[in-house]
Amino acid sequence: MRRGEGEVAEGGPLVVKTGAHTGRSAKDKFTVRDAETENQVWWETNASITPEQFDTLWQDFKAHMDGKDVFVQQLFGGADLDHRLPVRVVNELAWHSLFIRHLLRRPEPAELDGFEAEFTIVNLPSFQADPARHGCRSETVIAVDFARKLVLIGGTSYAGETKKSVFTILNYLLPKKKIMPMHCSVNVGSQDDAAIFFGLSGTGKTTLSADASRTLIGDDEHGWSENGLFNFEGGCYAKMIRLSAEAEPEIHATTKMWGTVLENVVMDPETRRLDLDDDSLAENSRGAYPMHAIPNASATGRCGHPKNLVMLTCDAFGVLPPIAKLTPAQAMYHFLSGYTAKVAGTEKGVTEPTATFSACFGAPFMPRHPADYGALLRELIAEHDVDCWLVNTGWTGGAYGTGHRMPIRATRGLLNAALDGSLNNAAFREDKLFGFMVPIAVPGVDDSILDPRSTWSDPAAYDAQAARLVTMFVENFTKFEDNVAAYVRAAAPKLPAREKTLETAAE
Predict the structure, then answer these.
(1) CB-count burial class (<10 Å; 0-12, 13-18, 19+) for 193
(2) Could you tell me which of 140, 116, 112 has the C-alpha nearest to residue 126?
(3) What is the pLDDT of residues 394-403, one digit of tens each?
(4) Which residues fall in the annotated binding site for substrate?
(5) Would you name the residues annotated as active-site residues?
(6) Strand residues in 212-343 grouped as ranges (E)
(7) Binding site listing
(8) Cα 291 to the chain's mean position, in Å?
(9) pTM, to two decimals
(10) How far is CA 441 from CA 397, 424, 425, in A?
(11) pLDDT tier at 388 (50, 70, 90 boundaries)?
């Protein structure tokens, strides 16, 4: 407050503005390409800079810091005591320091004595990069040097860049130790029946994992080690836009809590009351708060091995069933595909459903080839006999604009049946296109919704839309085919008409 970095709203949260950057600057992220990373980083999706360019950037960062007050936090990335990463975070902004203190895991006071950071992150929003000098794209830069164990962030006030930098580091380091890093939420029931929820933005990852009857381990980033599942973080970074006290009371309560950091949330300057529906500053308004602010959150951030793995997709094409059971090969296929769909109005120029594929449900944060993560996940699924499910939280009865959103009550009912094991006793049918198994009847759920084709008034229109989606899946997966086993390629969806054509040609 004394530094003029933010204002306090009614109830005590700190309200800040991030300026031009209200989200991640994905195209401004670079990794140093050297002898170590040359054959370990997937350069098709990770931009590179040279060690010399990074060295120049680091020298300029140190010159920019000279004479400035900076704020330092010593924190851990990861709740697993055997595998946590000690990090030092140096911030130019005090509110950035508070933010990352919420988001990472705080050492006990005794652990601060002799604390030795393995990685250091330096975040200077007022620094402006020079593309010609630093090998970057603009005045904004996020540069990672795994050899120096150093991350430099400049030219952006969006605090999420620091959080995701820790995620990127762990995504690079942990697979070497046969630990699976995941962009997912996790909860656990009273029988130590943990569940993993993968899903891109808008699929219900946070909402569906926030179950009052189960303990929340975390809502965004986790690891899977020999000890079980563990949260990378010690806090939450929740979307605030149009947040409802009725739909998400626990998260809404944090907007009136002392110390919560609210990014780009509109506040009345006179009454200091928030308007969570106002998107004039950003559609991506966010709130950062410690995990203990959520009543049913785990204090340790750890649980046992999962019993269920759920992949969430918002299928705006209205093709996928509300739930389907996957084989381990199908789970790897859909994990690498990372499918969801955007709907009209979510982005400029989007006028009809648009397929989005993000490998591993978090491609921007994955330094290694997606197949490396997919293979590790498949091994863990097999080792621990995990049931895998695909859940569609999108549309039924037609595509977006014609059909309607999948009833949340039906989704909850199906998900609960999957998590308590009762769904395994249902009768299933094999989907003709995707090959996964779909339940025919589930107590408490309308049977008709389980067969998406029957919910369309025009079955021929469903067939055409389904064929279109299958083609998108197949075309997207071509970039992985050379890096996965034949049984994974065989898990791809198939067009019956195309198969018949191939059979005729063979004859």
Answers:
(1) middle
(2) 140
(3) 999 999 989 9
(4) 24, 158, 164, 286
(5) 24, 164, 183, 201, 205-206, 220, 286
(6) 215-218, 221-225, 228-231, 235-239, 261-263, 266-267, 274-275, 286-290, 302-303, 306-313, 323-326, 339-342
(7) 24, 158, 164, 183, 199-207, 220, 248, 286, 411
(8) 17
(9) 0.93
(10) 18, 12, 10
(11) very high
